[in-house]
Amino acid sequence: MFTGIVQCSLPLAGLERKTNLSRLWFEMPPRLLDGLVSGASVAVNGTCLTVAELDGGRVGFDVMMETLRVTNLSLLEVGDPANIERAARFSDEIGGHLLSGHVHDTVEVVSVERPENNCVITFAFSPQWQPYLFSKGYVGLNGASLTVGEVGEGRFNVYLIPETLKITTFDQLRPGSRVNLEIDSQTQVIVDTVKRLAAAGSLG
């Protein structure tokens, strides 16, 4: 599990592509290497990946076919930044909302507006996610726990403070960029349960 509080963004240091598999390499800062072992989980752009290899400060992650299909990790090239978060520990403060690192889909940046000391990013999403996105709800975007602003038909936006822009990759997003989306699991369970009960005529 992850808290949705991105710890840093790092450039992709190495990329090995094979048939239906990619290995991503990142140079981790010392504070993120503490206690890191093969088999540990790390969120890369909100995608839960397993440490496959450690080589000094370099950490390698294998990304399989399904993950490449669903997420934006298939679009990364050497030098491209990615949001990084180590897995949560029991003693950690949960400053965001719990994320599983299981990305549902990618959304496309429609616009980036920059009113003074703010940044508003609007995304387009597939119709299947409409029931789970509502104003002031939670959403995971590239591994960051964010509050949804306004929601329209196939569109929603988020408001970002300067600190978020400094730590994450969001400051580099442009129209057309693809961003990983994780729907809040509690919201999904509640909505799906109500839909099933309504379909069964159990809501009176």
From TrEMBL:
Keywords: Repeat. The keyword Repeat applies. InterPro entries: ATP_synth_asu-like_sf, Lumazine-bd, Lumazine-bd_dom, Riboflavin_synthase-like_b-brl. Lumazine-binding repeats lie at residues 1-97, 98-194. PROSITE patterns: LUMAZINE_BIND. Residues 1-97, 98-194 form the Lumazine-binding domain. Its EC number is 2.5.1.9. Transmembrane segments: none annotated. The keyword Repeat applies. GO terms for molecular function: riboflavin synthase activity. GO terms for biological process: riboflavin biosynthetic process. Coiled coil: none annotated. This is Riboflavin synthase.
